[in-house]
């Protein structure tokens, strides 16, 4: 059986007891979701120093296939999917101690859609994107932050030309708009983005006639907004492109398309902007696994490709530290999390060779500094 290690320190998680974080503004609490069909057992927590790039194992909790997770705004709760392709597919609410890294399962609610692969919250609602279920689940939150049973389901469709990848509906991500008025979901198999309206006094979001169509055979996967909320960027899995939009009160207007996957591998995955909004990163899998790097024009939101960083195998998800100094890549099939240092002036990445060894890591999230609320 493979031992869970942090390779630079040679620490076994089995030998670790939860540790108190040092009183350091640079210490983050880091959560990692995994696939559990190997030796990983669920969610793992670390202390990560965003000045030195050093990670220290803290704790773990058993949970089936927590392939995507997100912390609450205060970092005291974690919402994690169990990506199962059967009736056990679910959303889990966990309490989280940012100092010790310990977690406790509070409740579990069924998503009523198979393979939930994305979760987001605005503090009053939680939504999951259910890949094989082809739908989006909406949950309300109780006063204690736990999810109630599902409020409603919104269904995707399948009209795309790929008879294998788009033959059934797939919803791949669902995000809250920065203005708090809408939810946007990627309708992978119909090559469009769906918009749902959030009404303050309504129990659930309302479907809207507003959809954003993109080029056929694109396979929209993940969507992210610029820090100032003026632009949105979409990574398309099948066509391997980044599509830039201007954003204004619920409307996405396409302004640019640029290629992230030059090998046509049809496996582009994740997309993130640096915290200052000056650079955009997009991951590619299946061929030439790595991260495409783009500069962002602050005047019009347009992108220009500035580099490409090779990574381990199958970089499904990655994340950037809040100070922008490090980019961490979950390389699922290499069974490592790679730590890259970012050049804030060029946007380029340098491997600092402080890999975190973990079986099938697929999601990385940070909370606020562990010694701050």
Automatic annotation (TrEMBL):
UniProt KW Nucleotide-binding keyword: no
GO BP annotation list: glucose metabolic process
Family: Belongs to the cycloisomerase 2 family.
Protein name, per record: Lactonase family protein
Pfam families: Lactonase (PF10282)
A GO cellular component entry from the record: cytosol
Entry keyword set: Carbohydrate metabolism, Glucose metabolism
Protein's UniProt keywords contain Membrane: no
MF annotations from Gene Ontology: 6-phosphogluconolactonase activity
Alphabetical list of SUPFAM superfamilies matching this protein: C-terminal (heme d1) domain of cytochrome cd1-nitrite reductase (SSF51004)
